[in-house]
Write a structure and sequence with these properties.
Elements (H helix, E strand, L loop, with lengths): L6 H18 L4 H8 L3 H8 L7 H10 L5 H14 L15 H10 L4 E6 L10 H11 L5 H19 L6 E7 H5 L5 H15 L4 E6 L11 E6 L8 E5 L4 E4 L2 H17 L3 H13 L3
Parallel strand pairs: 1-2, 2-3
Antiparallel strand pairs: 1-4, 4-5, 5-6
Length: 287
């Protein structure tokens, strides 16, 4: 049950257990809040994972729900402890774009599989340092140098948290050929980025494939990531990244649509060997 590597994942796992325990007890949120002498909003925030819960409050809540098994209580208390820890990105909070993005990077550390689609720009998980710096400078030209340096540092740390975990997730990446061809100011920067992609593709738990121009037109207009988790009770989550919005989706029907979209794109993508060859070809053309 405690297969959570960070506070956001811990709170997410705990919220699911607590919500189901309340429902199994046939209690409403209003009656639980009244019994616990809490505000209704406090219980709602605990059940949606937006706040942590103290171990004392948790034990009282479990007693209300009739949960007395010692091993279950121990595991849930451990999840509560994890949920109250400081995430690695706390000191960089003001440099992160949104609450949705903070949740994403908090959950990446516990994901068992990740399916990533990039359309015009490579995901931060795939960016070499100089490419990350160049992209940030192009997209936010007014960004102070200190803030830019910090954002680059966060991207590089995020890669370590995902790829260098003891139990790294299985990562499947699909990249539209447009991202390979999208010019940056210095050809050398893009060439280094393409070589970096090749190195990422060599990792044993990473599959990286290109959706070529020859695959034709498709309807997707945004990059997205699908995260799945080792515990079957944790629902899949989709992060959608567009210029105007960053969205987190957990509704099963909407998540299913992104799974279907990814599967369709896979049928259009080159195999791994041809994908690496196309990346190399794009890099050679920059020489």
């Amino acid at each position: 049950m405690t297969s959570a590597h960070g506070p956001i994942a811990g709170r997410r796992r705990l919220r699911t257990v607590l919500r189901r325990a309340r429902e199994s007890s046939a209690l409403t949120q209003e009656s639980v809040a009244q019994s616990m002498e809490w505000s209704l909003s406090k219980l709602i925030r605990i059940e949606n994972g937006s706040v942590s819960i103290s171990t004392n409050d948790l034990r009282a809540l479990l007693d209300l729900y009739g949960i007395a098994d010692k091993s279950t209580i121990t595991e849930l208390v451990e999840l509560a402890r994890i949920g109250r820890a400081r995430p690695w990105w706390t000191d960089y909070r003001e440099h992160l774009s949104s609450a949705e993005f903070r949740t994403l990077i908090g959950l990446e550390g516990s994901a068992s599989t990740m399916r990533i689609f990039n359309q015009n720009v490579f995901s931060g998980l795939l960016q070499a340092e100089q490419y990350a710096r160049t992209i940030l400078r192009d997209v936010i030209p007014e960004l102070p140098e200190g803030d830019l340096q910090t954002r680059v540092k966060v991207r590089l740390r995020r890669q370590i948290e995902v790829f260098d975990r003891i139990d790294p997730p299985d990562v499947s990446v699909l990249i539209d050929e447009a991202a390979l061809r999208r010019a940056v100011q210095e050809p050398g920067v893009m060439r280094a980025q393409l070589h970096h992609l090749q190195k990422v593709a060599e990792r044993p738990h990473v599959s990286l494939r290109i959706v070529p121009f020859s695959a034709g037109v498709y309807q997707l207009v945004s990059s997205f990531s699908i995260l799945s988790f080792p515990d079957g009770d944790d629902p899949d989550m989709v992060y959608v990244d567009s210029y105007f919005n960053e969205d987190l989706l957990e509704d099963p029907e909407r998540v299913s649509r992104y799974h279907d979209a990814f599967t369709t794109l896979e049928t259009r993508a080159l195999d791994t060997q041809d994908s690496i060859a196309l990346i190399q070809k794009a890099a050679d053309e920059l020489a």
